Amino acid sequence: MNSNEINIAVVGATGAAGGTALELLLERNHPAEKIVPMASSRSAGRKIAYGDVELTIVEAKAEAFDGIDVALFAAGGLVSRRLAHKAVEKGVFVIDKGSIFRMDPTIPLVVPEVNGDDIDWHPGIVSTPNCTSTPLVMVLDALRSISPIKAVTVATYQSVTGTGIAANEELLEQSRTVLAGGMAKSEVYPHEIAFNVLPHVDDFLEDGYTKEEKKMLNESRKILHDDALLLSATCVRVPVEISHSESVQIEFESEVTADDAKRALADYDGVIVVDDPSKNEYPMPLSAAGRDEVLVGRIRKDIAHEYGIALWLACDNLRKGAALNALQIMDEALCRDAFKPSAQRSTK
């Protein structure tokens, strides 16, 4: 099957990740007649632009998946729980952006550059990681080729579009209000996000970590096939529209020099080293926005650990952190002739 022959449903087409998926499909010149944007009944019938044409939003329900080859789910866990398996029953290959299937041992959690082989055993659904886990595991995968990793400490600086369109609108509205001398109103977040940072991403757990922070640990272990990986995260929301950044400290079992790390990262697919502080060159959210690659810089010896490296990364959370990774999974499955569940392929 040629990639332009694939009938693709984008579930959650009116959201930030779904909208980005449509942008990426347009960049690929995917035929408009091969795309079905889906959303809730409230949005059904609404027109959305796709290049020079308009697509009509279809209500996301089981019968809407008739004739669909691939469905990109970016509408939240409740929608995925209700419809993903029904889509699979209709012969659809489902790629889910939400968290609901990520830790299901029967469903692969995939970043193609790291563990594309896992697509081979999917049961009709492949899950994609959290938008902070994706760039992190790519960096860790590149560096563990030099020496096994003992422990990772990471602090994230996450943009508001990681929460969604409403959060981005809240940031902009609060910024305008504060600059005009008014009092900002908070609805999406528990506190003002404009001119502020919130060390609070997702719900808090009994041990003091948040769900987001535990996602980074558990998802990294699954993707890297390393259940012994030690990872401690602090996730922070910052007043940035697009791109997540991360400060990462990695402890290895043996010596890794900064030059070793730079070479390994520069040779890794999907990673670009931006690291010349003498020229003020380092990854930033603004420079990562709109790009497909993970930008990595500030690569240096970690003076707190004998065998440690510290670095900084930035990644567009809507592209590689969400929609692009899903499309790359689709590409990988197409190359492997693996749209059908593994059990159906094994009976050929």
Summarize this, please?
This protein is of the alpha/beta class and 348 residues long. The protein has helices at 16-27, 77-89, 112-115, 133-143, 165-179, 211-224, 258-266, 285-288, 319-335, 342-345, and strands spanning 8-11, 35-39, 47-50, 53-56, 58-59, 70-73, 93-96, 125-127, 149-158, 230-237, 244-252, 271-273, 294-301, 308-315.
Observed structural traits:
alpha/beta, Rossmann fold, 22% strand, Dihydrodipicolinate Reductase, domain 2, globular, 10 helices
Describe this structure in words.
The chain has 348 residues and is an alpha/beta fold. The protein folds into two domains: 3-128 and 322-345, NAD(P)-binding Rossmann-like Domain (Rossmann fold, 3-Layer(aba) Sandwich); 133-159 and 197-317, Dihydrodipicolinate Reductase, domain 2, CATH 3.30.360.10. The chain contains ten helices and 14 strands. 30% of the residues lie in helices and 22% in strands. The longest helix is centred in the last third of the chain and has 17 residues, at 319-335. α1 packs across α9 and α4 (133-143) packs across α6 (211-224).
